[in-house]
Specification:
With 270 residues, the chain is mostly beta strands. 13% of the residues lie in helices and 38% in strands. It has two domains: 57 residues; 201 residues, Fumarylacetoacetase-like, C-terminal domain (Fumarylacetoacetate hydrolase, domain 2, Alpha-Beta Complex).
């Protein structure tokens, strides 16, 4: 099931996106959004007798975290190496503020404080209920679904701040999410491997697989929830493959994950 958050020009609403994806990860032209009665995280899946052509709506970030976005650092060995870091012995995580979240098609603002802003295409996990100290074998019980993220990073500020992540990753618009939440997958699908690709102005710049994650999704949920309570709508970014690099004002960045679609955003001057 693909859950979307959308607008027709009025207040945001939630819906289920019908139809299939084409080979580029885009919905077919005849796709329809079936409206839901409220946020399914809190009221469940309650379809209304109201439908919209996908072409007549604008998709928004499929979830607005009430609490936090938890990013995982160096969770692909080749990415750790490309930035001169060791592969961690346990998950490294950091917090991105929920104000950094934007949706598909929204602009990424290039801040004046930075001269080197990087893309980082990632798989994102959306938490479905309040949880703490979740055993890895119970991780599927707390997962609402999966979406795509771009963990945008001001790399020069990250170096200047001596590896501290908060400023470099916390700017408004530095966490594009979307285009929808897929609920009919489980961590095993990603352990077997799904491609994670990032395109910069149409050229492939990242081409990885989720099977190469150092720590799998259940391990990440167990580790993070052993430290802090996770709330419905919280998002865990699972790390990025190698190939990160700069993007500039005017560039278009697409992150595509097999079975999850494509997230597209342009870079503008903030």
């Amino acid at each position: 099931m693909r859950i979307v958050r959308f607008t027709t020009g009025e207040d945001p609403a939630y819906g289920i996106l019908t139809g299939e994806l084409d080979r580029f990860g885009q919905p077919e032209e005849d796709s329809v959004v079936v409206a839901l009665s409220g946020d399914p995280l809190y009221v469940g899946i309650k379809p209304l007798e109201q439908e919209h052509r996908l072409a007549d709506v604008r998709l928004l970030a499929p979830v607005l975290p009430r609490s936090k976005v938890v990013g995982i650092g160096r969770n692909y060995a080749a990415h750790a190496v490309e930035l001169g870091n060791d592969v961690p012995e346990e998950p490294i995580f950091f917090i991105k503020p929920n104000t950094s979240v934007i949706g598909p098609g929204d602009p990424i603002g290039y801040p004046s404080q930075s001269q080197e802003v990087h893309y980082e295409g990632e798989l994102a996990v959306v938490i479905g209920r309040i949880c703490r100290d979740v055993p890895a074998e119970k991780a599927t019980d707390v997962i609402h679904g999966y979406t795509i993220a771009n963990d945008v990073t001001a790399r020069d500020l990250q170096r200047k701040d001596k590896g501290r992540f908060s400023r470099a990753k916390g700017f408004d618009s530095f966490c594009p999410l979307g285009p929808w939440i897929e609920t009919d997958l489980d961590p095993h699908d990603f352990a077997e491997g799904r491609s994670v690709q990032t395109f910069l102005n149409g050229d492939v710049v990242q081409d990885g697989s989720t099977r190469d994650m150092v720590f799998d999704i259940p391990t990440l949920i167990a580790h993070v929830s052993s430290v802090m309570t996770l709330l419905p709508g919280d998002v865990i970014l699972t790390g990025t493959p190698e190939g990160v690099g700069p993007m500039n004002i005017g560039d278009e960045v697409e992150v595509s994950i097999a079975g999850l679609g494509t997230l597209t955003n342009k870079v503008v001057q903030r």
